[in-house]
Amino acid sequence: MFSFPEITSAFYYTAAPVLILVAGSMITLLQGVSRGYSSQRAIEVVSWLTIFAAILAAVAMPVDQASFLAGGLLSGTLVRIAQLAILMISAAVMMMMREHHTAPAFFRGEVISIFLMLISGMLVLVSSDDLVTLFVGLELASIGLYVILGYVQPNRRSQEGAIKYFILGSVAAAILLFGFALLYASCGTMRLSGIVAALPPIAGHGWVRLGALLTLVGLGFKLALVPFHMWAPDAYESAPTGITAFMATTVKVMILTVALRLFAGAYSSLIDVWYPALIILAVLSVIAGNIMALVQSNLKRMLAYSSIAHSGYMAVAVCALSTTDTNLPVRAILFYLLTYVIVSLGAFAVVMSLETAENDQLTIDDLSGLAKKRPGLALAMTLFMLSFGGMPPTAGFIGKFFVFNAALNNHLYGLVFIGIIGSAISLFYYLRLVVRMYMAEPVAPFGAVNTAKGRFSLTNLILGFAVVSTLLLGTILPAEIMDRLVGAATEVARK
Amino acid sequence: MIPVENYFVLSSLVFLCGLAGVMFRRNLIMVLMSIELMLNAVNIIFVAASRHLAQVDGQIMVLFVITVAACEAAVGLAMVIALFRRYGTVNTEFLRLLRG
Question: What are the residues whose beta carbons fall under 8 Å from the beta carbon of A92, sequence distance 6 or more?
Answer without folding.
Answer: A345, A462
